[in-house]
Each structure stands twice: as C-alpha cells, then as structure tokens.
Design brief:
The chain has 330 residues and is α/β, with parallel strands linked by helices. The protein is 27% helix and 25% strand. The protein has nine helices and 15 strands. The strands form two sheets. It has a ten-stranded mixed β-sheet, sandwiched between helices. A five-stranded parallel β-sheet has the order 12-11-13-14-15. The protein starts with a strand and ends with a helix.
C-alpha cells in the first residue's frame, strides 16, 4: 500500500531494524558503475547492507563488490540457471535470499536490468515497488519525480518489504575500493528457469565512456537530419573524451540506436558537461538531462525550449558550429 505526499520521520528504533539487500548489476566481469550510486542510497536507509551477486560465473564480480565501502556482506548466488542474468532466474534467486534473511528493503539500480527484475519480485511478494527514487526521507518515505520531472512526489510505504529502484544520477557514487565485506556462498539448488533461455549477447564495442556514467555527454537531435551527420558528434566526442547521446526524436527517426536515447523513456544522465546539438528541448528529453552540472545548447532557433534550461547557448547552424569546435580542438 502506498500513500502520496505524506511525511513521517522514522524513529531511531525503526532505523535500527532496517536491513537492505542490494542487487549488484554486472556483466559477469565487472560491477556496473550505477551500483555504486545505489550503495550510497542504501546507506541512507540505515542498518546493514548486504549485496547479492547472482550469475553463472561471478567470482570476480563478488570480489570487486566486497571492496565497496558500505557493504557489510556479499552473498554469491552462482549456478548455470543464472546464465545471462535473465530476470526470470534472478528473481527466483532474490526471493530465495529474501526468504532466508527477511530484509526490510530490496534495492536495485534504476536501469533496464533493475526495472526488469524488481517488478517481478514485487509480484511474487505482493508488494508495490517504488521506482526511480531521487531522495530518501526515512526508511519508509522516499522522493521520486513525476510529470517528466516537473513535480516531486513523496511516497510512504507501509509494506513489510520495500522494493526500490534508485536513480543513480541523484546519489553520489560510493568509492569503488576501501571496503572489506565478508563473502558468503548461497545455495540456489531450488532456482530453475524454464521460462526463458539465454542464447548469446552481442554488444557494441566503443572506446567512448558509457553514456549513463560519462563526465561529458554530447547529444544530437532531429536537427542533424540523418544518421550520417551524427559522425560529426562522434568526432567531437572522441576529441573531448565524451559519450554520445540522442533525443527521442532522433532515435524514432532511425538516426541512431535506442541505447543512445536520453530522456524520460531513455537514460537519465547528469554529467559535468552536457552539450545538446540540434535538440529543441522537449519535456521528456529535459527530464533525462536537466540535472547536468553545466548545459550547453546549440540550436539555430532562438526560441527553442532547450535554451530555458541551458547555462550557455549558441544560436547558430550546428553544421557550422560543430565543425568549428572540432577544428579548434585539433
């Protein structure tokens, strides 16, 4: 049961009883950077934080997770049923660990992976997940944005187990090293996945930073006119050590793949520098990048909404401005 716009501070007794299971997102080799932000969020709830590393071969990931300050214990659920970290199998592993430990909170990254797993866990536990939180008021009260980021909602949960996904851009990343958590193997003999099968993973390789965690992001919109013109942004990004993003309009037009989309229905980013090129500034796009430290907009339309949120604006033809930027960085 959820109640909205209700504020109640947790008592010290309640805070002492809190305990958190944190789902470690990984690719089988390393911990996803967003997990560090979720660790910080978990620490604000209070009580011990245990991390669950689930996969078919994840010893290296568990070792890395054990070094993160703020994590008290790393629970390793390893087995062939968890190959590919499919949500159906990981959900069963989470439920088994929860049944054995009775955590008050289960946290996951507000990524595609976390949003795929936690609702399944919620359905099994008959609990309503609280998605994409940006703040923690107490152990049962959280803040999240609504209306494309134009309003902040305060949500209080009376459920015995709070299921929460965390918007990483709203919390500082915990240090990657300095901790010394204990590691414990968990028997997942009862976990079996007959609903889906992992076949293969085909990942695009790039020397550029990952979009969600990059310090500099350069995004292009429909103003680039076609996918070939995104090469300008790729060249500029390579010179600046930046990641490349895109507006929904550019993705819908087929200029770039959907994994580059920034916005309410894409990725949430908050880099030190965000450069919007040929992006008008639709409300759903602003919801995904307005927390950036510095926003620079390049658009030939002086009335474009993007200029209302930008720190610096250049009213110019992007096909003239971007090549000049590239040349100046040579």
């Amino acid at each position: 049961m959820l109640r909205y716009a209700v504020r109640r501070l947790a008592t010290p007794a309640l805070a002492r009883n809190a305990s958190t299971l944190l789902l470690v997102e990984h690719d089988g080799v390393a911990v996803n950077a967003a997990t560090l932000n979720t660790v910080t969020a978990a620490g604000k709830i209070g009580g011990p934080v245990h991390a669950l590393v689930a996969g078919d071969s994840c010893a290296a990931v568990a070792e890395e997770a054990a070094k993160i300050p703020g994590i008290e214990k790393v629970i390793v659920a390893e087995g062939s049923a968890l190959k590919g970290n499919l949500a159906e199998a990981v959900t069963d592993a989470v439920l088994a660990v929860q049944a054995a430990n009775s955590y008050s909170h289960i946290l996951a990254n507000g990524t595609v992976s976390g949003k795929n797993i936690l609702p399944r866990v919620g359905a099994k536990l008959d609990v309503a997940p609280i998605s994409d939180i940006i703040g923690i008021e107490s152990e049962d009260t959280f803040h999240r944005t609504i209306y494309a980021g134009n309003a902040i909602q305060t949500v209080q949960s009376s459920d015995a187990v709070k299921l929460v996904t965390v918007r990483g851009t709203s919390f500082d990343a915990a240090p990657a090293e300095g901790g010394s958590a204990a590691t414990e193997a968990f028997d997942i003999g009862g976990v079996a996945n007959d609903k889906s099968e992992f076949l293969e993973s085909k990942l695009s390789k790039s020397d550029r930073p990952e979009l969600a965690s990059a310090g500099i992001v350069i995004s292009g919109g429909r103003g680039l006119k076609n996918g070939e013109n995104f090469e300008m942004l790729y060249n500029l990004a390579d010179k600046m050590g930046a990641a490349v993003g895109a507006s929904r309009a550019a993705v819908d037009a087929g200029y770039v793949p959907s994994d580059l989309q920034v916005g309410q229905t894409g990725k949430m980013v908050a880099p030190d520098l965000y450069i919007a090129v040929g992006i008008s500034g639709a409300i759903q796009h602003l919801a995904g990048m307005k927390d950036s430290k510095t926003i620079v907009a390049i658009n030939k339309d002086p009335e474009a909404p993007i200029f209302q949120v930008s720190d610096y604006g250049l009213v110019d033809d992007l096909f003239k401005a971007v090549p000049e930027m590239i040349t100046s960085l040579d």
